[in-house]
Amino acid sequence: MILVIDGINKHRFGKLLDQMFGLRARVFHDRMGWDVQVTNGRETDLFDDLDPAYLVSLDEDYTVVGCNRMLQTTGPHMLADVFNDILDGDPPLRSATVWENTRFCIDRERLSRTGSAKSVSYTACELMVGILEYGRDSGISDVISVVDPAMDRILKRCDNAPYGYLGKTADMGKVRALAALNDCTDDRIDRVRAFAGIEGDVFLDEDEVAEALSVREAASTQSIDLHDYCEEQIAAATNDHERRAALALRRALEGQFRPEFDCDA
Question: Which CATH superfamily is domain 2-204 in?
Fold first, then answer.
């Protein structure tokens, strides 16, 4: 499921944004070797300061497993200001109804774990549907995506093939990149949904997410407090009986709060 985070509601989801920037660092810097700026394990750039719209994919535990960034082309954006070699001398595309789509990535490691409810492929397609439906519902006619050839092949495989390209394929540091155009039409949305078997609304209600995160944080804090209490009781035990009782209490609490103890987010 997808949560939209933008300049209006970002104050509510700071921890999710931290997870998202961390995922971007692992994917674009660590795995793909892109020349991007990473600080304290988070990948950000100057375009993140412009309050873009983020489409953040969350799993059943409300942990970030995918993300995407959308910027208006009427202002600074990557194709105009970073990847302009792709344009091959042509002026950048600027339109209120054409937005730029970048930083698309999926947490393959987390989604590949045993017990994950959704696959990498399904999550990627769900995020594509989110991009197209967000665009359609926001009056955006087309999205332009700066992608590498591998991502271009993924789009085609998911029945989401670009209808055109701008400029040329250009070398961008360690990768090659091209600018692909996709229209935000019902026909395209239906094709991607059919390919992945996606039904129903793909978007999450932000109030429900905020409440769920608040409850999880409260439970996690409680589990940590109780765990500390148990450790204090174990250390203060003066005989075997007291120690066994304190250890039994710790085991019971660890079983009760196992999801929080095992969370690696």
Answer: Gcn5-related N-acetyltransferase (GNAT) (3.40.630.30)
Classify 138 as helix, strand or coil.
coil
Is residue 50 helix, strand or coil? helix
What average pLDDT does the segment 180-208 reach?
A: 96
Given the DSSP bridges, would you call strands 38-39 and 2-5 parallel, antiparallel or unpaired? Answer: unpaired
Please list the alpha-helical segments (H only) found in 90-183: 108-111, 120-137, 149-157
Residue 96, both tokens:
């209120």
Greatest extent of the chain over all pairs of C-alpha atoms, in Å:
81
- Ordered by start, the domain boundaries in the chain are 2-204, 210-262
**Bridging pattern class, strands 98-106 and 42-43:** unpaired
The torsion angles phi and psi of 41, rounded to 5 degrees, stand at: 75, 10
Question: pLDDT at residue 242 above 70?
Answer: yes
State the pTM of this model.
Answer: 0.80
Burial of 61-99, coded b for 16+ CB within 10 Å and e otherwise, reads ebbbbbbbbbbbbeeebbbbebbbebbeeeebbeeeebb
| 219 pLDDT higher than 80 | no
Distance of CA 2 to the CA centre of its chain: 9
pLDDT at 251: 72
